[in-house]
């Protein structure tokens, strides 16, 4: 089946790594028409904003997008394009797998975690204001509807992937109303899945336990802020953000992207590690039910890592971005 997919190259290293992913995906034999659209700081002068309406229109039309990283200014400037995309398209579920890959340096083995992060509310709703000159307030928004929806997503994907346990991560000992409502909502959904073990853990204890014994956990479901932080911690367990894929999934649309940022200092050098976005492309192909092509890429990527001859500088080698893509294609 032919697919039309929105391609957002992004900025910084985005164009280089998305090109590598595009080459690998096409080599797997899936007929794809790419509809390329621009977003990020570089397009503000042209369109007046970092997220042009044409980007949202393209994704709404095609239902699926592969997105490169986009720089977000710290403490000033425009609001995160990533957050805006998720809210505008109601991409309520952020899915971030973290598993050990052969040949990737890590202190851990047999880690295979699935982080399911609520994507539309919590402190990331961006409801904040100044209180006089010397204070600022951010409002943490947690709703029963969004909490139940992300809980059902977590239990459904656990069931689909044959996973046995879902852990809800919270801080309800302190935020008794907001995180308390999140827990109450997840518990209600958990009752519908008696075959899946359900447990709860406070977020700071979760961070400690993940460092001590990550193999004890399976699927984690978290509100937005904790999910963002814990998913990066989990990426660290398996080798870093360079091997961390991600997906943002809603009822109508899905956007697939690497977890890492745009690394503008590496832009144009052909040095960036493309594995995270290639693995995000594998998640995209599975979403499109192109399972054979997804398996083909995964098997080729693992063979390249096992051989150890092709590694980008962050993995201890000298292979370029484009050479890494070529090595994976050759294995197919």
From TrEMBL:
Record EC number: 1.1.1.41
Magnesium keyword on record: yes
Domain Isopropylmalate dehydrogenase-like: 4-328
Cleavable signal peptide: none
Enzyme category, top tier: oxidoreductase
One Gene Ontology term of the molecular function aspect: isocitrate dehydrogenase (NAD+) activity
Cofactor(s) the record lists: Mg(2+); Mn(2+)
PANTHER family associated with the record: DECARBOXYLATING DEHYDROGENASES-ISOCITRATE, ISOPROPYLMALATE, TARTRATE, ISOCITRATE DEHYDROGENASE [NAD] SUBUNIT ALPHA, MITOCHONDRIAL
Protein name, UniProt field: Isocitrate dehydrogenase, NAD-dependent
Gene source species: Desulforamulus ruminis (strain ATCC 23193 / DSM 2154 / NCIMB 8452 / DL)
